[in-house]
Design brief:
heterodimer, A: about 0% strand, B: alpha+beta, Alpha-Beta Plaits, two-stranded antiparallel ribbon, 9 helices, 10 strands, about 30% helix
Amino acid sequence: MLEKALTGTKKYYGWIAALLAVIGVGFACYLWQFQFGLGITGMSRDVSWGFYIAQFTFLVGVAASAVMVVLPYYLHNYKAFGRITILGEFLAVASVTMCILFIFVDLGQPIRVVNVLLHPTPNSILFWDMIVLNGYLLLNIVIGWKVLEAERNNVAPAGWLKPLIYLSIPWAVSIHTVTAYLYCGLPGRGFWLTAILAPRFLSSAFAAGPALLILLCMIVRKLTKFDPGKEQIQSLAKVVAYAISVNVFFFLCEVFVVFYSNIPEHVDHLKYLFVGLHGHGVLVPWMWASMIFMVVSIILLVNPVTRKNETVLVVACIAVFIGTWIDKGLGLISGGFVPNPLHHVNEYVPTLPEVLIGLGIWAIGFLVLTALFKIAVTIKEEVAGLA
Amino acid sequence: MKSSRRRFLKIAGISALGLGAKPVLDVMASSSETAAPKTAKGENVLTAKRWALVIDTRKLQSEEDLDPMIEICDKIHNVPKFENKNHEIKWLWAEEFKHEFPMQEPDFLNDRLKHMSFLTLCNHCEKAPCVRVCPTKATFKREDGIVLMDFHRCIGCRFCMAACPYGSRSFNFRDPRPFIKETNPDFPTRTKGVVEKCNFCAERLAVGKLPACVEASNGALTFGDLDDPESEVRAVLRSNYTIRRKPALGTGPSVFYIV
């Protein structure tokens, strides 16, 4: 089936070439970082994780969201999603690939990465994160591939796939839970030290992932003869509507606890993000933009009139994606590190090479996604006799 | 031809599986028959159940009083000096009360403490969060309580830096060697991409010497075994009121401050 990714229209090749160009620039910057060290980034002694780890965290969410199409189809026999489960699973594959790459480029000594396997340390959450991420990647590759192959050959998927599919459902929840546990179990980081971090991660994931999937479905519909379906897109839109609502609700729970208890170690981080602290507030406009994007998207998505209008739906999904991306991909990590444990305020802004390396990884993700979607869609066209 | 290729793949696959599984199996086999490697101890080695440091801040009035300790520490441990604040490496340094003890600052702190500089270093916590989070055991706790680092095992994930509630850890954002004024050949320099911090002068204890800062402190610093009721640190703790940094977090710092 892989050969389907190798042939396409001029536009297809052009898109691939553009992605390869971005990857090339990112790779060149990575070689520079590899040679010089992480000093080419904006990270510091005080903000020791930055753009890379933030992207990783956001993308774990996108990956986990595949469960939002898999679960209704396999557990509730919601037939409509059968058409797009493969798209959800392949989106998960591309996202986890990016996650793993973002962790890799964040390592100070990448050539020693196998030490995590050579000296397995179960008391480290990073050890478990490695297991759940790699496991989830493998599950989705195997499930997606074998189900698609069965569809192509007009046979029922092999029986041994069923237990794997059922396993992939809690596994999806686990990847984002474990990722939240990386942060929320650390003493002295008031911003992350909250039991609602994992639920917040999941809710924003189940908003951002399906929102992206809706946009991808619309692109697929526009560019190919395969139509993911109106009902499918509307059902996904409802998932996004309630997930983003729950996400904002969870955030407000956080805001209440932090400000009503008024414990400075918790208050100061939220203050830094939303109003600035001791004259520092590089993220303030971003955080408010994030809130506005999320609230506007709730209005557009919960209201059936606007949700059912696909043009408005596109706007709403973009708003969800940007809003949750700012929240997790910018605010979450910096917000936890500023102010630092000694209560110094040292801000973080990513550098250009750092952003270019990040873009390179996003481009790798989109390359994987493009190839996998191309394969899936071509086979769907074939099966439907459209090709 | 085909069968030999298949055989090769088979053997390669099995070996790869074996290589990957071995360390995992080693961990599972907890009471493995292979004895722990024997390490010889030096003749003069100083030992303790739990090393601790008491800092008498009454004897350290100004930043100048701290300088000799910080200087000798940086010198013997090959701590580099960077212009760029983002790349800073710190083992032993000075902080004001409000930063050393954030959220512990009384509204009307007396003038002496308010403007004083406090020695800041790794607390060698009893229940160290950095040890808990390290995915490779590059940060580990010795049986004498010292939290140490294996610079050769560290992968530079910086999880320990996020976990440390005292900001005691530094990361080598670039090759530190060109920025060391005078290299001490008796202590390793570090490579880029690894984390480092104060080691309670483990290398000096091994040859019967007290930590360099203690030696340079003119008696303001007391170092000894917290577990031994007869030790000097316990005597100092018995007769003075001391505080520790962020006691509410339950990390159990081994550094005490007489204020």
